[in-house]
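2024-03-11 09:14:02 DEBUG pipeline.ingest accepted 1 chain
2024-03-11 09:14:02 DEBUG pipeline.ingest length=76
2024-03-11 09:14:03 DEBUG pipeline.predict start
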Amino acid sequence: MLFAYIRRTFIYFYSSYFKQRMRWLRSIIPVTSLSMLRGARTLAAFPQLELFRIYPVQSVVPEGVERDGDSFRKND
């Protein structure tokens, strides 16, 4: 019977991300390592894709308490 006194609310958030952008990097001297494109003077770089995943959260609010934005207040 404990669940009879609890009110459940579901809050859903969705994934968001920032789009990738390509950047050309110019080097004053050529890359000389064999594993790094010998003689290349320009390289394309892609900044890391920022991905934020927010999953559905279930908050349990006891009876007699109201949610007020991000905080809670007691009903009198």
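2024-03-11 09:14:41 DEBUG pipeline.report Confidence is low (pLDDT under 50) at residues 1-6, 10-15.
2024-03-11 09:14:41 DEBUG pipeline.predict end
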